[in-house]
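Batch manifest line 239
LIGAND: fe (ii) ion
JOB: complex structure
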Amino acid sequence: MRFAIISDIHSNLHALTAVLEEVDRLKPDSIFSLGDLVGYNAFPSEVLDVLFQNKITSIMGNHDIVCCGLENPIWFNAVAREASLWTRKRLSEEKKRYLCKLPNEKAIHDRIYAVHGSPMSRDDYIMDLMDALNCFQHLPDKSIRICLYGHTHLPAIYSDQGPSHDTAHAGKHLLATRNRYFINPGSVGQPRDGDNRASGCLVDDGEDGRIEYDVTAAMKSVLKAGLPHFLAERLQVGA
Ligand SMILES: [Fe+2]
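JOB STATUS: finished
ARTIFACT:
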């Protein structure tokens, strides 16, 4: 399965349109948003229309919950507060109801989980490896291999195997089958990593570069051929 993951669209219709054109080209099995659909930019209602038209599901971001009126922007800075109150006035009651009903977090596939900020709170920021390592234990299920998150507007990959497996930049990354990850696709509508291009990611849970095969049969063939036992044994352990 291939999932296009987008986050922090923040009412940026221009960025979302460009991202969806690219998604269309990549033809994933589904598209999922990690929240903050609205706030900051100029097209909240239009962005929601595009999401509805494309049947893109989402979880709730900290701006969504304020813009729909469930919370007030008491913790927002002045600019975010002004934009959230502006957004509230431009959303229909129906669209506010839609935002109000967004789930806080969601399992989007077998062993792939989605949160906005962190597994503890939509307002938390996972900014570095230490933050990510602390969050693994708060995932609702130990079998979760990939936790997708947004909120920081910074693309990142953090592995439970430590710094040598971390990347915090764009590109293609092979995920090791044995490792667990926190992955941030970056922001569609308000990137904050010094690159003004819209950001997103494609998660392919079948493209980790490792393919299972009948190891036992291969081992038996080695033994049947009279080759050293060691050659069969090393197939079993992969070393
Ligand atoms: Fe955001």
